[in-house]
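Structure ticket #2291
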Amino acid sequence: MPTIPTGIDDIDRQFGGVRYGALTELVAPNFTSSGQKSLQTQLLARVTQERVCALVDATNSFDPKSAQAMGVNLQRLLWVRCSGREMKGLEQAFQCADLLLQGSGGFGLIIVDLSGVSPRFVRKVPLTTWFRFRGVIEKQESALVFSTPQAVTSTCSELFLRLSTKKVRWSQTTEKGLAHARVFAGFDFEADIALKRSFKKPVQSATRTLLAYPRWA
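Resolution: structure written out below.
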C-alpha cells in the first residue's frame, strides 16, 4: 500500500509516512502545544491536492482559515463538526466515522480528532471497537488517523506517533536582552514513533526531535 508523507523527514524516511489501508494513532496530551494539530493539517494539505478527505472534529476545534493557509484544499475536505461535549461528542465522532467508512470508501484520508476529549472518556472505548475499525480500513484504499489524548488503540494501529513539547524557543536568549523583550519563536517537538503491527518484522521504535515554527498573521 502507498503512504502519505508527513513532511517530517525522519518519520518518512524510516516508516514511509501514514499508510493507506491502515489505522494510525497520533497521541498528544491535551492543553499543550505538541504539534498534533499541525501534523494533522500537513496530512490534509498533501492529500486534498488530489483526493477528498474527511475530518471528524469531536470538539469543534478545527480552524479552516489556518488550514487553508497551510495548503489544505477546503473544496476537497468534508468537515464534520460534532455538537456534543465529552462522552456525547465522543459517541458522535465514532458514529460519523462508522458512516464514512461504511459508505462509498472514496475518501483518501479520514481523520477522527479526539484530542480535546478527556482521556478518562477515551479510555472507555472498548478494544473491540478499535479492532473493528482496523478490519474495515484494511479493506479500503484510505488512511484512517485517530488523534487521541492518550494511547488507546493498542496493536490495532500500525503506526503510533506520540508528540510532546521538548523546548520553547525565543527570539533571543536572556543573556542578549531583557526577558520581557523576547518574542516567541517556536517549539521543539519530540516524537516517539513505533511501527506496531507487522507479522513479518518485530516492533520498531525510535525517538526523533521535530521542529515547528509559528505562523504570524
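Closing remark: The chain has one domain: 3-162.
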